[in-house]
Amino acid sequence: MGPHVQVDVEMSFRVTKPGSAAFVVAFAGGAGQEEFAYPAPPRQVAFEHGTRAQVVDLPEGEHVVRYRAQRALGPVEAGRVSTEDLIRYTRPSRYCPSDRMGGLALSRFGGLPDARTQVEAIVRHVGEHLSYVVGAGSPADDAVDTYLAGEGVCRDFAHVCISLCRVIDIPARFVAVYAPGLSPMDFHAVFEAAIDGRWYVFDATGLAPRQSLSRIATGRDAADTAFLSTLGCELDFLGNTVLATAGPSLPEDDGSELIALA
C-alpha cells in the first residue's frame, strides 16, 4: 500500500432535547474507504472546498457517533486563488479581527520583500511569541485575546497568523485537519495563505508534518469549521477520541518547503 492516512473518530454525547445536529468530521471531498456510524441515517450537505456535513436527527438519550476512513496521500497541485478568495479572505472575521492588528502587522511584516517571506516571518513570530498550552483560552477568544495572553492552542495560533496576513493583504483562511504525528492527538487547525496566486498550508505550532495533513473543513475562521453544530436539539457533549495515522511512515517537515493541502 502506498502513502496513506487512516482516521478513527468517536464522539459521545447525551441528547436532552431531540432534534437535528450537523457533524463535520469526514475527509473533505471524500475518501477511498470510509464508514459512518450514526444513531439515524445522515443527510449529507456539501459546502465549498469539499467540506461535507452529515445532518442527523438525534433521539433523546446517550449516543456515540463514529467515523472511520482511509485515503491516499501524495503531492497535490496547489489550488488557485480566485478573485472571490481575494475579497473574502482578506476581510476581518469573527475570530480574526485583522482590523485591530494593523500596527503590529505593518510594523513587523509590511516592509518585507514578498508574500512568501512575509508569511514565513509571521509563522516564525507567532511560533516564538505564543506558548502552546493544552486547555488555554476559551472558545470566545479571538486573535487579539490570544496574542495578548501569549498562549493558546492550535486554533488560536492559526487565528493570529490569519489576522496578521490579512492586514498586509495576503489572503489567508482557516483549515480543520487530521494530523498524523500530533501529540496529544485530536482534531487540528492550520491555515492556508496565498503565495503567487496559489494556496499553501502553514502551521505555526509545528506539531505535525504538513505533508500528512488531511483537510476536513475550510473557512474564514473556526466559526466556519465546527465539528458539531446543534440544529434544534440540546445535548451534553461527553467527549471524543481522534486517532490519525500515516503509513508506511510519517513524513519529515523542516518547514522550508511550500506545501499544498489536498
Automatic annotation (TrEMBL):
InterPro entries in the cross-refs: Papain-like_cys_pep_sf, Transglutaminase-like
Gene3D superfamilies, alphabetized: 3.10.620.30
SUPFAM superfamilies: Cysteine proteinases (SSF54001)
SMART domains, per database record: TGc (SM00460)
Organism field: Amycolatopsis azurea DSM 43854
Superkingdom as given in the UniProt entry: Bacteria
Matching Pfam families: Transglut_core
Residue ranges of domain Transglutaminase-like in the record: 146-206
Full protein name: Transglutaminase
